[in-house]
# Entry
Amino acid sequence: MKVTIHPSELKGIIQAPASKSSMQRACAAALLSKGTSTINNPGHSNDDKAALDIIQKLGAIIEVDSSELRVQSQGINPISNEIDCGESGLSIRMFTPIVALSDKEITINGSGSLTTRPMDFFDEILPKLGVKIKSNEGKLPMVVQGPLVPATIEVDGSLSSQFLTGLLMAYSAAGAKNVSIRVNDLKSKPYIDLTLDVMKQFGMNVPENKNYEEFIFHGIPTLHAELVTRKYTVEGDWSGGAFLLVAGAIAGPLTVRGLDLSSTQADKAIVDALMDANASIAMEAKGIKIHPGGLKGFQFDANDCPDLFPPLVALAAYCKGRTTIKGVNRLLHKESNRALTLQDEFDKMGVLVKLERDEMLIQGNGFVKGADVHSHHDHRIAMACAVAGLKANSEMVIEEAMAVKKSYPDFYNDLKSLGASVSLPFQHLNL
# Structure
């Protein structure tokens, strides 16, 4: 399905979407924390819906009331022998160890690009924890049967921190005591900070963090020995908000609300990148105000926040001079190979993107051509192309544009509310 972005000027105030990183972790913690949990500001992206479906199949009871979600749980008690993670990389990596807490044989499946992503991490690690696992040569579907028994292990953290997130939650729920998870070369450390923060807010047993190299479970009793009620508010999403902020730097002015500068989300580093690019940005009490300025090339290390690559490339296209972004090796196993995808699609716009070892070099001149581009079924590529199209010299036509539903289903309507000229097929005008 195609969406057309016409050259536009933006103006107004917009609320950032709910963070799926925060929402999905909250779903897992609510499942593992016996009692009733209330989740405020719940997300409704496809990834969020996948997480909700998973916890229901693992025994949680969910009630939806206006802007809040109530989850009742007695812990892991599967009512199905299969879960479907959709296209959510976080769900498959986080929930697999959690599923392994059960002694029932459960099949774990997914769709889209998730079926080609490597999951051999679990083939190696789960048997060390007493879990039986069968996979399709390191890919989906996987069949696991626990119960998982916590033990001191060593894991590779270089591919994704999401594997560690699942293990930390599973260890906590299993009552881990006097054991640790040792981690080599952990990437995206801020996302582990988010995991530990969510665990703490839900009263889970939080391990001692020794410089992100070892997480030690001392067996301190959890706070939910008796059934309790707890509340958690899903944060505004810095990943989706990054596209809004870049849009403001290119075609604003606009104000983005709902983004917490004290958040542990890694993608709040977009603010540093915008400042380095000489964007006109101000942190105000009611939100972050941003408008176009004399943008210039910048340098940025995205090893801890690889999801920022797409909005950063859109930003760099409008910066005069060279931009260098480190962390290309983190882009291989996303919804697409984002390094090559960004290179190919921005080439159509007349923007030169080079890949040199672990760096991406973007030569910007402040000029972007309108073009027919393709999302490659990748939500962040679709949004990057849309933002780049806001000040292009002609319309930007995005094929498979509705990939945005994975993380930010309201994206195009939010752009329209800010004054962007967006042509949507009739059936999607009220997403």
Summary: DSSP finds twelve helices and 24 strands in the chain. Residues 238-251 form the longest helix (14 residues).
